[in-house]
Write a sequence for this structure.
């Protein structure tokens, strides 16, 4: 088996999660998220947030995005997103399938710019057009960049000025939070957004995203939307157990830190080799540009994603580390990389 | 804690499933159902089916119903269902949210009647009406009844005559298969339907329904529909592991038999007490009619669902046994029941 | 050409409407319903209504129903309708295509019963089910019956008690208003409903339904919903002109009275012949039951709709009179009918 | 009243159309487009097309686009459009409301480029993304440009290579056909597209777009889609009469030619004044850039649309001529323009 740097959801779950599951195996729990594990997990998360929020545990990111967006928007209201946004590219049209247009803009380094939001609002001015109503950003972004507090405040201010909702996709919020670029904490996200989610799947959980509803308008009948979109698990306590564990003893941050530290190590080592980077990422995803010959040789030894074609000779690849990455594997990888380079 | 007869998904998962998960915890698996566990689980299921089918592992029943139906129908095509059908009552409008009308009929004992299908087709005769195109039945039904082969063949013949698809919701297909009323096997379902699913959640799995696509027309781009509906799990191998285990050493049937045997024991014991039944069910769900005083007392000791009001004094309650039901708990329950009755 | 009793929209438009159109042919008007004819037509209608309402001119009934319902409901909210309701049977699934379930009940004589609404609300009690939120009735109904004020008040009271909207499909409201059973006026409909429409197409207009939004919650961004559903005509003034004319010199009532008088004449004459009626209708639609031999012979001379099969020998047919019906044609029809009967 | 150059649908209808309507006012016609006028209008259009096509008369362009696109696509299939495309900007999200993503590209002069289509297809390569399936172009475009036969063939070839449908929005196809840039006829559009429509509303009709279905796959149950989308008029013969008239004695071309001739006159006169044009348009829409002072003064005398802001001092305005434009009004306009300019 080749060692995989393909993504951060290759391993089933952190051992502590499995432990809790084994321990709970003989319990009888109420279905559909109305169980005691859900209560406990919510309490643990709520400790990080000073506002009164509603928390829903969902199975995946597409589901979380699709349900939240269609729950809060009228069908003539649209989403503003950066072009590379997950909802815009990698969700098979899930948001549109529920009836909403995504207005997409180039952004910069994977981040949406406040002025793009303003432009969008000003252009959409009559009933022949959709009404931009919800701003969608991801943190960390699809390109591994991390928003600063200043950047999110700038977006939030535009949202408030134009009466837009701000929704933050946090599939990799853990990795963002432990990045050295970061100056936000979970409570800041609750203060600055109308809703966001805390990704579990990419940070050691077997399954799950914890959706945090901040805006009181979002809360009513939300469980109806979950059910209608096929997002309500009979054994909802399965997802809750993941968060119960992740938010005990800081496991959530410990796992993310391991992933990002591994990513930084990989970056430093690659920089030493003079490798060209597609973008400057400070989390557990590194995008490097290599020639196609090296790519082929590397790919025989390691699994990873070819991100995009650069030109006839070069491609960008994405190397992802995770909570489960063995640091030795990185050194192994670098050794092989140098060999290929020097061959 | 009160012992619960509320449903068959109160316990996390059968120990053998947890064992496999622990054993696999250090593996790196490809995401989105393209992993080796998915391959293995598919092979194990395919052994029971003589036709070439596509198998997709999904997270839940609503998701399976919603995705299959909207994948195969045009928006002006409608579903025919019995009034008590899960899609018609308990999925929060999931099928309609994806654009399709459900035409519902009274049926008999929770089963749809072939003549109701014929009527539906004949009435819907011009472009001002929807076109009935897919027949949805559940086996076992919502009321715990089980279709015979003869009954399903009669429905299938109507479907063929009028060019309709037949889709079978198998959330409790395991319990149906081991019921003494049953004269079908998994291959029969593949022969007689265009698609059906093999429920895991209610038969010992932590999560999952295995959707079997028989009709070649259904297979194209099905994964796009899964993704678009938020049904594609990053760690798809989690669901696959459930089926890998359930379809090893007949565990699937062993668990269902335990659940149904427990149901039959409960029924026999209640019959001895002269209890009135709402319907004659031969699976792991028993619906009994008791007076509200007894109900209150029983409910202090046991957890169960109040199914429906009968009159001012009486209600029907649903008692569900499962793969995890302790036979001792049934005897305990009966002892308490007799005490309440004789008080 | 056979004389047609098929429906009340066989003739293009009343001559006065054509006159206004010819007179206006050289004007330049603003598009999309922002023109002076729209203003005038709204003023004329508003004179009949004491509340502050919004009025939108739409092209057809399906469009009006679909747009209103999907504008005001969340996708998990459902419509309550009588089984024979136009939206439930004759709109090709238009409401479901926009994501909403229709909960349908048998009703009586084409009218929804208040107790059916109560039942529906009480049954739909948790997030696994849709939430009934809008009651849809038609006046006159599909079967030609007319609601009394008492009946509509009874429905309205249930709606208020359970926080439901009441929407009245008025495709044939003109015919209802002039029926001898009627004790309501246009203002009553505004007082008793959240929205209703005043049908033009079936009462002398070339095209158009005037949708009256009473509930302030319905008004916001309604034009966006019209546009998104393809219901906004570039030459909106075309529809407005119809209403400008219909609401001048009581033409609206004059035309409806002619249609209903013709219907009553037809009914009286048929009753004299001892004909069996399917239902007691006091508007311009009469449903009679005749044997299939007579039906065939009549159909060679006149055009009408075969409404439903009664048994092997008999069918119900629908005879519709209109603002344009020539009274002589009714006498001619009766003469032919008697000849067939006495042959 | 100010003379209006706002659009080409300010006047009700050409007198010949009104004549036919008056002549037909006493007829009884079958509803829903099954009448003799529809048959006649279809025959007249079919004379221009050598293939066997289906023709449906619809009320408006948004309706035509929305119905065609959602009828032929699965929900995970997407539309490729130029960014300025009518469906992308000016239909309030109608296509997305029916579940489909629009992938939009910059294009050139309002025209989509074949290489943009190729890029779109190549990028969308797995089930996490939508599948581009239908190419939407308008002719004339929103910016008044006209595709050459060579350009459309280039697009068609890409469509055939990648198994995409080509759909042409012909709201202003008449104006394109008579433009001096044009080298196509109606039959060419049938040869080169899977479907297109022949706009009536902007070329003298009171209402209507004639949708031509060329691809046999599109034809099945199309009337169900029309009905479900609220696009089926009870008095369908009203729209048919428009086309019966437009396609008699070449009225369709005569009216378009008048509109375009007027546009060319206006362009020539403005060019003489040294006015700057936003784009080179050869149809009945001229986009000129003027300073805001002139704009204000002109707007006191004439009605027109302010198309876009150029900078703090200048704006682009759109001047539209039509079949009804009085040539004297153009000379009047130029006189006033010169006065403002020379003031």
């Amino acid at each position: 088996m080749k060692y995989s740097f393909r993504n951060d959801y290759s391993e089933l779950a952190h051992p502590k999660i499995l432990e809790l599951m084994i321990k709970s195996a003989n319990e009888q729990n109420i279905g559909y998220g109305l169980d005691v594990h859900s209560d406990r997990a919510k309490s643990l998360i709520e400790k990080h947030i000073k506002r009164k929020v509603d928390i829903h545990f969902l199975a995946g990111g597409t589901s979380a995005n699709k349900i939240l967006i269609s729950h809060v928007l009228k069908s003539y209201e649209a989403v503003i997103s950066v072009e590379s946004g997950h909802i815009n590219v990698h969700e098979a049209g899930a948001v549109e399938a529920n009836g909403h247009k995504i207005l997409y803009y180039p952004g910069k380094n994977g981040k949406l710019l406040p002025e793009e939001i303003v432009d969008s609002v000003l252009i959409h001015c009559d009933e022949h057009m959709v009404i931009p109503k919800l701003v969608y950003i991801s943190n960390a972004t699809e390109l591994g960049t991390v928003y600063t507090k200043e950047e999110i405040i700038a977006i939030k201010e535009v949202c408030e000025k134009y009466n837009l909702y701000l929704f933050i996709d946090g599939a990799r919020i853990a990795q963002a939070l432990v990045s050295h670029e970061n100056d936000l904490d979970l409570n800041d996200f609750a203060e600055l957004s109308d809703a966001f989610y805390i990704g579990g799947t990419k940070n050691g959980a077997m399954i799950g995203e914890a959706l945090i509803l901040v805006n009181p308008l979002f809360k009513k009948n939300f469980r109806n939307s979950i059910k209608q979109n096929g997002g309500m698990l009979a054994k909802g306590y399965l997802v809750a157990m993941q968060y119960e564990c992740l938010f005990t003893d800081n496991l959530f941050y410990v796992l993310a830190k391991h992933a990002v530290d591994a990513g930084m190590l990989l970056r430093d080592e690659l920089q030493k080799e003079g490798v060209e980077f597609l973008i400057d990422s400070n989390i557990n995803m590194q995008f490097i540009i290599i020639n196609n010959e090296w790519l082929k040789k590397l790919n025989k030894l390691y699994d990873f994603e070819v991100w995009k074609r650069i030109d006839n000779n070069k491609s960008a690849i994405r190397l992802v580390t995770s909570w489960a990455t063995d640091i030795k594997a990185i050194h192994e990888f670098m050794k092989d990389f140098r060999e290929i380079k020097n061959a």
